[in-house]
């Protein structure tokens, strides 16, 4: 078993790379590299790419985790069904091991990818909070622009065998449970899982698996700078005619302020900010499954387009 450090990128297939790139630009990603047959999009943090689209029929292929060391790649390569440690001949380079999860999604464990210079945050200002008055003698004047995505934060999968999938990710990659949710029969039917970096605080979840008759992508979620970016990005996507799914609201489990959209091929993508941070000492939360889709404020899940 290894302990992955974070989710790295997601990999899709789509028949029109121009259309995907145009949407992702409006969503707040920037082209990192493009070949004849693949598109690599980055955020403003230093990751080489967060989103890959290969040319072909629309599909969600899988996603990648960062390994802490090359040694961990050798350890995970011993798992049944895993590839050997291989050099990556794609933009960003590095090394990787690939293995299928129980539903056949391609999981890539990567290490040594190129880092790029961070990009500047636009529409950044010091907010005033009640008695904390950070912004004095300065004005908020925003440029109408996408919500710049910083990094990929989590992946949500619809899975056909919840127990096997939960076990797969925890036993191989060291994910730990943040919240367990129970159905009416009192059985665990959802878990929100995070990476284990010991005392270091990490996102409330990097992977949520939802039992479903059919395997597929629930959504992938990108962190943005603040709530202001969520609202500005919402207006920007709306004005450019993109299809909205759910939001704006604040989740209960994870506490993020969220906004969900569809890409041109029907895959759901999320902007989020201001999520809870947990470390290895944080106890497991327990709640009803209804809580998982409920909100503290904003649009509730009955208004969610699927
Ligand atoms: Fe999410």
Oligomer: single chain
CATH class: Alpha Beta
Each distinct ligand? fe (ii) ion
CATH topology: 2,3-Dihydroxybiphenyl 1,2-Dioxygenase, domain 1
Describe this structure in words.
The structure is a single chain. With 306 residues, this protein is α+β, with helices and mostly antiparallel strands. The chain has helices at 17-27, 70-76, 162-173, 227-239, 289-293, and strands spanning 6-14, 30-34, 38-42, 51-55, 59-66, 86-87, 95-100, 106-111, 128-129, 132-133, 149-159, 176-182, 188-194, 202-203, 207-211, 216-224, 243-251, 257-262, 268-273, 277-278, 285-288, 295-298. It has a single domain (6-114, 148-303), classed as 2,3-Dihydroxybiphenyl 1,2-Dioxygenase, domain 1 (Roll), CATH 3.10.180. 16% of the residues lie in helices and 40% in strands. The chain has a 10-stranded mixed beta sheet with strand order 21-12-13-15-11-16-19-18-17-22. The radius of gyration is 19 Å and the shape is globular. Bound molecules: fe (ii) ion. The site of fe (ii) ion has 5 residues, from strand 11 and strand 16. Residues 154, 156, 219, 221, 270 line the site of fe (ii) ion.
């Amino acid at each position: 078993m290894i302990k992955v450090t974070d989710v790295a990128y997601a990999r899709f297939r789509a028949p029109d790379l121009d259309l995907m790139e145009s949407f992702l630009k409006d969503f707040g990603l920037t082209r990192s590299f493009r070949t004849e047959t693949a598109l690599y999009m980055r955020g403003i943090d230093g990751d080489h790419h967060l989103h890959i689209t290969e040319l072909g029929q629309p599909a969600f292929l899988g996603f990648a985790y960062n390994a802490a060391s090359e040694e961990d790649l050798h350890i995970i390569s011993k798992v049944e069904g895993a590839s050997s440690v291989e050099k990556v001949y794609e933009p960003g380079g590095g090394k990787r091991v690939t293995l299928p999860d129980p539903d056949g999604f391609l999981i890539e464990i990567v290490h040594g990818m190129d880092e790029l210079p961070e990009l500047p945050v636009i529409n950044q200002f010091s907010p005033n909070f009640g008695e904390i008055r950070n912004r004095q003698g300065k004005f908020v004047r925003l440029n109408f622009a996408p919500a710049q995505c910083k990094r990929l934060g989590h992946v949500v999968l619809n899975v056909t065998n919840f127990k096997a999938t939960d076990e797969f990710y925890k036993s191989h990659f060291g994910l730990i449970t943040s919240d367990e949710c129970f159905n009416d029969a009192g059985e665990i039917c959802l878990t929100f899982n995070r990476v284990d970096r010991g005392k270091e605080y990490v996102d409330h979840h990097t992977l949520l698996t939802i039992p479903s008759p059919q395997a597929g992508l629930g959504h992938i979620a990108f962190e943005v700078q603040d709530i202001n970016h969520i609202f500005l990005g919402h207006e920007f996507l709306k004005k450019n005619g993109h299809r909205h799914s759910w939001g704006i609201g604040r989740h209960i489990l994870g506490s993020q302020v969220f906004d969900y959209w569809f890409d041109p091929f029907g895959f759901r993508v999320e902007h989020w900010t201001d999520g809870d941070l947990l470390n290895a000492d944080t106890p497991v939360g327990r709640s009803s499954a209804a809580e998982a889709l409920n909100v503290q404020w904003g649009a509730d899940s009955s208004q969610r387009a699927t």
